[in-house]
Amino acid sequence: MSAIVLDKVSRWYGNVVAVNDVTMTVGPGITGLLGPNGAGKSTLISMMGGFLAPSAGIVALDGGHVWKNPEIYRRIGLVPEAEAMYDTATGAQFLLANARLHGLADPGAAARRALELVEMVEPSDRAIATYSKGMKQRIKMATALVHDPAVLLLDEPFNGMDPRQRLHLMDLLRRLAAEGRTVLFSSHILEEVEQIADTIEVLVAGRHAASGDYRRIRRLMTERPHRYTLASSDDRALGAALVADGAADGVTLAGGALLVQASDFGRFVHALPRVARDAGVRLRDVSPSDESLESVFAYLVAR
Amino acid sequence: MNPVVMQLTVRGLLGRRRSVLLLILPALLLGLAALTRWAADGSPSASAGLTGDFAMGTLLPLMCLLVGTGVIGPEIDDGSIVYLLAKPVPRRTILLSKLAVALGATVVLAVLPIMAGAAIAGDEGFRLTAAYGLAALLAGVTYTTIFVTLSVLTRNAVIAGLLYALLWESVLGGFVPGVRDASVRQWALAAAERVLGPDAAGWGVQSDVSMPAGLILLAVVTVGATWLAIARLKTLRLTAAD
Description:
By secondary structure, chain A is of the alpha/beta class. Helices cover 36% and strands 28% of the residues of chain A. Chain A has a six-stranded mixed beta sheet with strand order 6-7-8-3-9-10, sandwiched between helices. Chain B has one domain (3-234). Classes of the chains: A alpha/beta, B mainly alpha. Chain A binds chain B through residues 18, 38, 40-43, 46, 49, 51-53, 68, 70-71, 73-74, 76, 78, 80-82, 84-86, 88-89, 97-98, 100-103, 143, 155, and chain B through 2, 4-5, 7-8, 11-12, 15, 78-80, 82-91, 234-240, 242.
């Protein structure tokens, strides 16, 4: 059982703050690091993996410093986001080289075991350059697992995977976590994270915005106020009817459109057509104005 | 030294398309050497001209540039170096293993062809061959180490190295006397001058620095560059543009 502990960790590049005062403990089980692109997820994983010094704060693995300490790689397996590998080598050769670099007692057996784990035994005598994206991703997983690490760090592992490969990787991560390993992966897709993560850490604009299990995060995300832009035959009447009905918390008439704010998403979408019909108003356009993931995250940060 | 790092490095150095250049350039030198022998009837001073100007001045720095920037730079560029760095292997060992491969390649692909070139173009009892062999070895070790270090320091190592090799070592070294005192080529030539003794001036092998000074400067630059590269690799920033 291993844990990575971040204590008031910040990282800045010149004037740009990539990670801002993050404190968290990543323990056994699957942790999903969720955040929009550019939130600092990769920076945080780089610091956890000992590839970047924190500008302030401490990153520790089981009480020992991570930075400038290659010995941690006996316990950490890393799946980088970068695609590049030693492309001229075959999958089997590359795995064997990784096993030997770890100084394992029986590198041949370890390489074979890792290839079996990701179901890449059969194509492993082909050059890596000939592999599909999904196969490369599995070889990357195998290199991270070859020394049987207690901690696994994955940077955007589901990127570019087809649904079948995605399910396969989720299944593998679940098995690894069930064996008591600490698994952390980053993603910008909530659905992906909530499917397998026991714990979700939300990172927005470098800040640790929320933390908890997926139900808590999901609730935070669905209970936020939703905003819609409507166009209708009579915006004024429709706005009044929506407020009277209680489906909307607030309405604004602006620039020939009706802006509606609703805190109960389900109630609003069911009420809107009924209210419009009862008021004799024809709806021309209904569009959510802030459904982008970024605005969801921004809401979490602002809380 | 780590044999696995060395194997992966050899594979990377020879597996890339530009490794073809590593064979073409020495072949070109040998061809020119044969032409020189035919045209000048094997005169040692013609041979010294070809070896001193083309082989030492252009071919050697270019070969060292190709080799030095080929052993670690591409892996840092594409991020695959992470597979070496995320291992319980000291960064020092990784760098020294890669440097060893680079130096080996320099000897086989540059120093030996330069010796062969001098011998083919014209020599007396292999004295020119031995003298230029020594100078090429000394300069090659230093050049290659400098270029390996450059590729750990900057992503633009090839351009920086090319500017250094062509502008500083070749052009400025030819025109500005002060620059010649601070040139790897001149330091290494000091050893060749000493080996040839009284014949050196007659064959046009001249250096602006004395041999002890040349050797000390070569050693200082080589060791310093190696140290710098190790220090930089220990803190190499590895993160995607997030």
